[in-house]
């Protein structure tokens, strides 16, 4: 395997390397797994990181001599083992598999990860068909049913004309400002669109929560309220109250201000409450109808008992890391435990904690990273997982087979590997056919992993299943039989930023008949205000005829107008920050062809190559350093020696702009009047530009038809 890896490295870094790897080859790379070798490589990178951050260049030199011997002057970049993913050490790579009967075994690394485990022991216990509801948990009365958001949404019977209208008519929109969420845009194809106004005080009865949740929610959320120093008079934080108010109307929701550092846990708890409320109500309806069917007289029409989808899974939660799944399951368990002294029965809990938990001792103790980095990458950050969760009254079943699950929690990569590609023999996506709530949390992180996995998932949502999977068609709702599931599906999308690709998911893959709500706050002050280095920022506008031509136009503008100004030896120590990996490969190939004096670091560069590149750049032996955004996202190294900075494109994360600029203060020589910062942008970068310089400056810059040289100092 080592020889093949070396050969791959040599081939991938030849000057004839294609500038864009095909999607097919990227997928093949993604599906490659070698847990033991990956774990060893990642451990080495952590050691290299400690050496690099300590500031002792001698350590890097020793790493170069004792580490990879090949590569000559530079340690060439490998093609990805996992496209779009640069993994730190993960717990999953060293966790063992349990026995097939579901009994726990010790997590011995020697066991390896051989096959996916599913719980087959508790199938009949958690079967909806074989169980009946307890009397005290019975369904609501007639008046309650009419005002119940769940019943209102799922029981609405649409006509074909309405569906045709939704497919052909454009959406009308209206705007309103809410106290906490700010500017909201309501959009719908309905002519009678209503805008919502949240109540100042929350009456738990008006929320129509499933009865146990009315008791457990205040207790569970009280811990969060106290940690945030919020008033305990309300059961919700102001943010939770407004978000849940929208969720509970079953409208689609896009909230682009979710951050792991500030409001992440607030939001996670809110959507866990909504998802669990939905599942408990749906299952209670099925179990109640089971009892009615059992007691009915022979020959009675059973059409009134249509209460299910074509498959059982109702909620899909897409999260980036195992730690996120761990916290979600913890929230669900807490919300189900009505009495603190009586724990609910959770099957396979020990196994789950072993595979999704993390060992605090695994993290190197001396690594210093920004607070937001620590919050995002806390716990087990393996990004390849999926798990089914079944909930029945007062019990929870982890590792339930998907077709016996109510909730599926998975990463995009975990979904991608089970959905498969066209032509593959072993692929499955029928379990997505009747998803009623889709929650995509931390969507911005998927831009740093592989956005193709998200798009692939969305294309397979709510399709008619290829197999019946033992469904009782007399119990299936007409909306599912008519293949109208996508018009009833609620999508909750949470992200840390506005991005065209994320916006596209919300605008092109969400068809909810009740409409959509998007938070659209415009940043008044950009991240440039956090730059502490006295530095002139020159924003250079490039003119592109269309969105499709921006990539080529930017490249041509860079090599014709920008690069010639930096070729002179006087302009040494120039860092070129490149958000797109494909742009990075294109620039690297051009720099090689022109025989420029440069080094390069991307998310696939080996530890020895990183050390060499940083050392050569710091000492001025190499004039240019090409750096990818995803390397910065996953590592956050401080690059020393920067005197000239070029943003080939505006960063995806606004705060990366100030972080990269502030790296200049790490230069030993102190502030230099000759330092420069150049940023390339086009009219299609309006959102990113506003996040960096603020809305007022953005309006001025986009109104100008010429290249704009805008000088700003960090104090402004």
Automatic annotation (TrEMBL):
SUPFAM superfamilies: P-loop containing nucleoside triphosphate hydrolases. Interacts with CAPN3; the interaction is required for CAPN3 translocation to the nucleolus. It holds the Pfam family UTP25_NTPase-like. Residues 37-78 have a biased composition (Acidic residues). GO terms for cellular component: small-subunit processome. Belongs to the UTP25 family. Residues 527-711 form the UTP25 C-terminal domain. One of its GO terms (molecular function) is U3 snoRNA binding. Gene3D superfamilies: P-loop containing nucleotide triphosphate hydrolases (3.40.50.300). The gene is Diexf. The keyword Nucleus applies. Residues 250-517 form the UTP25 NTP hydrolase-like domain. It is found in: Nucleus, Nucleolus. Residues 1-10 have a biased composition (Basic and acidic residues). It comes from Crypturellus undulatus. Component of the ribosomal small subunit processome for the biogenesis of ribosomes, functions in pre-ribosomal RNA (pre-rRNA) processing. Essential for embryonic development in part through the regulation of p53 pathway. Controls the expansion growth of digestive organs and liver. Also involved in the sympathetic neuronal development. Mediates, with CAPN3, the proteasome-independent degradation of p53/TP53. Residues 1-113 are annotated as: Disordered. The lineage of its organism: Eukaryota, Metazoa, Chordata, Craniata, Vertebrata. This is U3 small nucleolar RNA-associated protein 25 homolog. Keywords: Developmental protein, Nucleus, Phosphoprotein.
